[in-house]
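Quick one: Alpha/beta hydrolase from Stenotrophobium rhamnosiphilum, structure tokens please.
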Amino acid sequence: MSEKPTIVLVHGFWGGAAHWSKVIIALSHRGYTKLRAVELPLSSLADDAERTRKMVAQQSGPVLLVGHSYGGAVISEVGDMPNVIGLVYIAAFAPDAGESPGGITQGNPPAAIANVIPDSDGYLWIKNDKYRESFCQDLEPDEALVMAITQKAPLATTFGNNVSAPAWKKKPCWYQISSEDRMINPENQKMMSARMNPRKVITLTTGHASLASKSDEVTALIVEAASQAS
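--- reply ---
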């Protein structure tokens, strides 16, 4: 039996590594003991990619990268590292060379874009009272409240940072589309997943936070990717 890879989970905007909590528990129960979750600064794609590269470089064996939301741009940027065996995108951006998450968003805006507002320091926030309906409409109110209050805002300029040489052109990929997503337009998800020629695409009837609302299905896709990539 081939070695189980280390699974490195990469969060997106308006959340942190703890957004993966349900997936982490489920993967552990499936026998995946080598799990890591990066905490990104969300200050620039370069900074976030460098933080992820350092974590991947610390792993001794094969690594499967999993990115949610903006985390998909990060894994696209760093996934060409030699020990990375595959990429899994969870309702995520997968920009091509010279594309940014912001550019993709502007071309086909999501339903909740009006609920994202800048502050005087240049950070972008989802309005607290609009967080559940925007980011995780199918979670329980209390769980959504915690996500709203603990949200991690990105510097607005990060949205415009371009991916240089996307690893999805070279490495095996898997993609999960959220059909009710209000933060990344589902049509954008369909476009990005189709052009990467993934091993598998699944569509879940859920909002943007599928890693929490459909954690069993997301975990199953990650396990399938880990098994095939190994």
